[in-house]
Amino acid sequence: MSDKPEASDVQKRPPNNNILFAVIILIVVACAAAFVLLTPSDEQETRTEVEPAVKEQPMMELKPENDPVVDAPSVMPEKPAELEVPAQSPSEPEPEVEPLPTLNESDAVVVAKMDEYLSDSVMSLMVTDDVIRRGVVFVDNLAKGKVAKKHTPVVQPEEKFSVNEGDILTINPNSYERYTPYVKIFTSMSAAQAVRMYEEYKPLINNAYSEIGYGDDEFNQTLTDAIDLLLDTPEPEGDLPLLRDSVTYQYAFSEWEQLPAAQKQLLRMGPENMKKVKAALRNIKAQLENN
């Protein structure tokens, strides 16, 4: 663990506890992009209706001229009405989709759209510069079990990390509440909508991924790896004892302390928050696999 005791002056700065929030940012970015990219199809299917043909009347048989009963008038068969097909109206052209901005110019568009779409409380949690690059670098590190503190995509919780003092040090449950706003944002999104919008904004995400030395269109696997790593985070039964190490805290049991940094920070969200986040991640992963 890397949280610091309250007694230390260093603790005046809240610890960096943004784990999977890069995933949240990518989804939020995609939501904003939907205003630019998604153009719903309002055209209804046009059906051509054909009038039924008039039923042809049977031709009456004419009597020979020497027939004594030859009064019956000659009846010519009715000419069937011609089939009339309504002229099809020319199909309306599909609305043009506004092109994506360049990666360097994407912040202005993304932030403006997010500000229109998201609440002030959500916007206050986000770092609004270099949004796409920041999220991509963070997820890339996350997939490796690391936490890229310089590329944190959301602001840190204002509340400080705290512990329960006693014979055994444990995390104060109140510390878990710091993450509730983030979890609510994440778990309130539809996985199908989030992934669909992520796909729409994917070109710029791939551009950012290429900038850090990877090939085009490889970010999907990295995102999946990051999700898998978080899903593999063990879920403790009960409180985990801590050890005070100078100005930081560590897990007392080596099997927990040796976990990747990303998983250890996910543990700090608390058991209930972790379950909600994992459920949302499973839905997103399933949706990605179906695309």
From TrEMBL:
It comes from the Bacteria. Residues 42-103 are annotated as: Disordered. Pfam families: DUF3014. Keywords: Membrane, Transmembrane, Transmembrane helix. Residues 44-54 have a biased composition (Basic and acidic residues). The chain crosses the membrane at residues 20-38. This is DUF3014 domain-containing protein. It comes from Pseudoalteromonas distincta.
